[in-house]
């Protein structure tokens, strides 16, 4: 079985010691150590998209290592490289494109809307759809002097021409090889001194991180172009529901690869009585039982699972956050996915589902092209958008994976440092390395930091913030923390026949039992064919997609990671279904229509009453 790094020696799961609780600090005066103020120039921010990858409180170490010094200026560089902005339109040294408000990460909407305004064929509203979905209370776009720019529109026309004619992105393969070389050259972390470990992390970040990030942001905006073209075209011909079909089956999506590999591992379990017996005994100590078993098929499985972790160990929840326990540190999530997949029929395999999506996509293409037959220009633009979607949706996921791989190399070194500090009694848990800023780490290793006092304060503040629900939109002013809603159990009125409406993710219909899942490593009572309902999903969730009958997500939009992967795997998916995890009780029978973006309540679980437990918060 895979041998974990010494950095992973029996640390508790992060959720065990960050459970939201009643605040122990004064919310009226609390300001998280990496909070900043909204930009006066670009005042509108959202939790959309970033809520998938930073669902919890942003950790000080990650944000001061790469967020403030590299992610913010890198986003601005990406806009300039695209041709949508000039460098002078950004304020040097200020956080404008990214924000941390009340401890939670936010993306700037104002600048993205200007990108849409300056891009021929796009609009600010189309950008809103691609990024932010059908969320309530999003202020309408109102252009300001200077937003319209003929110069930048001409530059973006050149960018569009390249996007619509590119057939591949060979530079991403070269970059992947470079990042894989970094992984292969990982030093023996347990032999490095404390200061050498920190220097290793800083060197990786300083030399490589920003370039990968700039490429990812560029790919993200490149992907909005074909998404917008396809969506607008389908709406124009009166077939908006076909956009989800057309944007599926794009192929070669990095985020879908783990699910495909895990399905093969699950088939090994299904075919082996020995492996089946081991999995039937439950997840408790499963890795140890597998490792100790010397039967040939079990040995072969553990070898294959080790190879899986070697390739995909960087994946996991909250991949941008170094505090996160990704699969190399904690294989519970992929093993849980195998447990789900082994009980699913072959008809639910990624390959079988993809075949169904391919047929639906071809039918949708024939329909839309037929409706455009009399307009050669519109048909040409549509066809160009369809071709670009295959290139740039996959490209966006590859750039994200490249960033995640490098972040993981930094993560492993910091977990080793955290393990050492725990052994010395400075930390309670190894992952508390993330509660310190980059500068505080320098002070700690120089013996100048009152570490217990700093950590005690940060723990209290994090706990207080983790108990709050951040507003979806921040428009110029961050609402006082005392006005934020508490994360608490919410029983809402719900009845059979009710329809909840969000946004199409992946077309198709599915009916099944709703399972509210908060941790991909702990899917609870979820069975093959059940409807997975989550507040958000990131690539660590996608292995569960293969066993799910359908997926419903509170947040998300047409180019969110969950949607791209759901389309690749052929799983009916509705996103931006606001409050789904709070409103739908676990065990409810529902119908998901991914093409319409709707969830219909068919029957409530036996014994349910709003006055009882209600939905799982």
Automatic annotation (TrEMBL):
Presence of keyword Transferase: yes
Pfam families, per database record: PEP-utilizers
Record key words, sorted: Kinase, Pyruvate, Transferase
Domain of life from the UniProt record: Bacteria
SUPFAM superfamilies cross-referenced by the UniProt entry: Phosphohistidine domain
Coiled-coil boundaries: none
PANTHER family, A to Z: PHOSPHOENOLPYRUVATE SYNTHASE-RELATED (PTHR43615), PPDK_N DOMAIN-CONTAINING PROTEIN (PTHR43615:SF1)
Protein name: Pyruvate,water dikinase
Organism listed in the record: Eilatimonas milleporae
């Amino acid at each position: 079985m895979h041998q974990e790094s010494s950095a992973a020696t029996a640390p508790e799961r992060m959720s065990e010691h960050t459970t939201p609780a009643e605040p122990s600090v004064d919310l009226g005066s609390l300001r998280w150590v990496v909070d900043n103020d909204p930009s006066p120039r670009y005042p509108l921010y959202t939790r959309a998209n970033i809520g998938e990858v930073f669902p919890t409180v942003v950790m000080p170490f990650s944000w001061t290592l790469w967020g403030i010094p590299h992610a913010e200026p890198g986003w601005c560089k990406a806009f300039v490289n695209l041709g949508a902005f000039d460098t002078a339109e950004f304020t040097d040294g200020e956080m404008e494109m990214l924000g941390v408000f009340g401890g939670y990460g936010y993306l700037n909407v104002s600048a993205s809307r200007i990108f849409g305004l300056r891009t021929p064929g796009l609009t600010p509203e189309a950008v809103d759809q691609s990024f932010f979905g059908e969320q309530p209370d999003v202020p309408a776009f109102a252009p300001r002097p200077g937003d319209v720019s003929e110069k930048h529109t001409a530059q973006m026309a050149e960018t569009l021409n390249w996007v619509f004619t590119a057939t591949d992105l060979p530079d991403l393969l070269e970059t992947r090889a470079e990042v894989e070389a970094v992984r292969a050259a990982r030093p023996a972390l347990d032999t490095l001194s404390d200061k050498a470990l920190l220097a290793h992390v800083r060197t990786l970040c300083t030399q490589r991180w920003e370039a990968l990030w700039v490429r990812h942001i560029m790919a993200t905006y490149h992907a909005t172009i074909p998404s917008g073209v396809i969506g607008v075209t389908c709406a124009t011909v009166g077939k908006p529901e076909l956009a989800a079909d057309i944007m599926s089956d794009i192929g070669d999506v990095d985020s879908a690869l783990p699910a495909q590999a895990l399905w093969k591992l699950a088939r090994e379990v299904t075919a082996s009585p020995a492996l089946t017996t081991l999995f039937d005994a439950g997840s408790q100590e499963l890795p140890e039982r597998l490792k100790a078993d010397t039967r040939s098929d079990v040995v072969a499985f553990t070898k294959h699972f080790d190879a899986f972790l070697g390739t995909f160990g960087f994946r996991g929840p909250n991949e941008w956050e170094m505090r996160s326990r990704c699969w190399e540190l904690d294989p519970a999530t992929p093993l849980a996915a195998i447990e789900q997949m082994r009980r699913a029929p072959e008809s639910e395999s990624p390959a079988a589902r993809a075949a169904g999506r391919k047929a639906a996509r071809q039918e949708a293409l024939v329909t839309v092209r037929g409706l455009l037959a009399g307009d050669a220009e519109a048909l040409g633009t549509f066809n160009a958008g369809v071709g670009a979607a295959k290139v740039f949706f996959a490209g966006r996921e590859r750039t994200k994976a490249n960033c995640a791989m490098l972040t993981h190399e930094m993560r492993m070194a910091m977990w080793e440092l955290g393990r050492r500090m725990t052994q010395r009694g400075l930390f309670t848990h190894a992952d508390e390395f993330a509660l310190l800023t980059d500068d505080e780490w320098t002070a700690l290793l120089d013996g100048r930091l009152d570490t217990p006092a700093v950590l005690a304060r940060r723990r209290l503040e994090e706990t207080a913030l983790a108990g709050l629900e951040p507003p979806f939109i921040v428009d110029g002013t961050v609402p006082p923390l005392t006005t934020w809603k508490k994360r608490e159990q919410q029983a809402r009125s719900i009845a059979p026949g009710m329809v909840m409406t969000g946004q199409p993710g992946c077309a198709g219909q599915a009916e099944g039992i709703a399972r509210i899942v908060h941790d991909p490593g702990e899917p609870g009572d979820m069975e093959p064919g059940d409807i997975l309902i989550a507040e958000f999903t990131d690539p660590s969730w996608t292995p569960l997609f293969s066993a799910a009958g359908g997926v419903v997500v509170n947040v998300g939009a047409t180019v969110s990671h969950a949607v791209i992967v759901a389309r690749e795997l052929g799983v009916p998916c509705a996103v931006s279904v606001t409050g789904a995890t709070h409103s739908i009780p676990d065990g409810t029978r529902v119908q998901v229509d991914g093409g319409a973006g709707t969830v219909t309540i068919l029957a409530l679980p036996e014994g349910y009453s709003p006055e009882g437990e209600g939905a799982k918060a």
